[in-house]
Specification:
The structure holds two protein chains of two kinds.
Chain A (H helix, E strand, L loop, with lengths): L3 E4 L2 E5 L4 E7 L7 E6 L6 E6 L5 E4 L2 E6 L4 E6 L8 E7 L12 E2 L3 E6 L1
Parallel strand pairs in A: 2-11
Antiparallel strand pairs in A: 1-3, 3-8, 4-5, 4-9, 6-7, 7-8, 9-10, 9-11
Chain B lengths: L4 E3 L2 E4 L5 E6 L6 E7 L6 E7 L2 E4 L8 E4 L6 E5 L8 E8 L10 E2 L3 E5 L1
Parallel strand pairs in B: 2-11
Antiparallel strand pairs in B: 1-3, 3-8, 4-5, 4-9, 5-6, 7-8, 9-10, 9-11
Chain lengths: 116, 116
């Protein structure tokens, strides 16, 4: 019940295209859904995050769409650039009050390659 | 603001040897996490500290892994004896303790461990 399933495993997009990565979760107690970006040799860095009280959040070229009833959320990268080439992880965590709040349960990751 | 510092960056040891990793979180961050990231997978939480107390160590292989966070600041993670399957990147992360909602976790660059 703690799993977060992410797809696709890898994604190749042309420069200027839209990259879409999907995640699904089972635990309805999750209330914080961040996306992390990881470059080779670096630790994950927060890209954008959403809470379940909104259905969409946009920051620049990055948008999270959230479907609470379907227990799914996705990351859209508009106008994808070669510099966006990295591994992307979705994650989820439970709210304070439960045990180990703040603990991130990660998806398996998506390797994004943006061709020039 | 200085980020999460980890050392060493790389470590190669033989199986059955012991190894220790060190982490210095962002100043003022009460919560510290150790994650294990096996190649091609998302990070998996090993242990979570709140100040110097353990909040969650349910996925820590306690027969060989140990961790401590003295004085609620720096932390060390030890493996003794190491197995081949312990080869992974060990990520340290920290976050502000929040009573109301989860806050961003900041990751270090990680320590890449190779057990041969």
């Amino acid at each position: 019940q703690q799993q977060v399933k992410q797809s696709p495993q890898s994604l190749i997009v042309q420069k200027g295209g839209i990259s879409i990565i999907n995640c699904a979760y089972e635990n309805t107690a999750f209330d914080y859904f961040p996306w992390y970006q990881q470059f080779p040799g670096k630790g994950p860095a927060l890209l954008i995050a959403i809470r379940p009280d909104v259905s969409e959040k946009k920051e620049g070229r990055f948008t999270i769409s959230f479907n609470k009833s379907a227990k799914q959320f996705s990351l859209h990268i508009m106008d994808s650039q070669p510099g966006d080439s990295a591994t992307y992880f979705c994650a989820a965590s439970i709210p304070p009050g439960g045990t180990s709040y703040g603990k991130l349960t990660f998806g398996q990751g998506t390797i994004l390659t943006v061709h020039p | 603001e200085a980020g999460v510092a980890q050392s060493p960056r790389y470590k190669i040891i033989e199986k059955r040897q012991s190894v220790a990793f060190w982490c210095n979180p962002i100043s003022g961050h009460a919560t510290l996490y150790w994650y294990q990231q096996i190649l091609g997978q998302g990070p998996k939480l090993l242990i979570q500290f709140q100040n110097n107390g353990v909040v969650d160590d349910s996925q820590l292989p306690k027969d060989r892994f140990s961790a401590e966070r003295l004085k609620g600041v720096d932390s060390t993670l030890k493996i003794q004896p190491a197995k081949l399957e312990d080869s992974a990147v060990y990520l340290c992360a920290s976050s502000l303790a929040a009573a109301i909602m989860n806050t961003e976790a900041f990751f270090g660059q990680g320590t890449r461990l190779t057990v041969v």
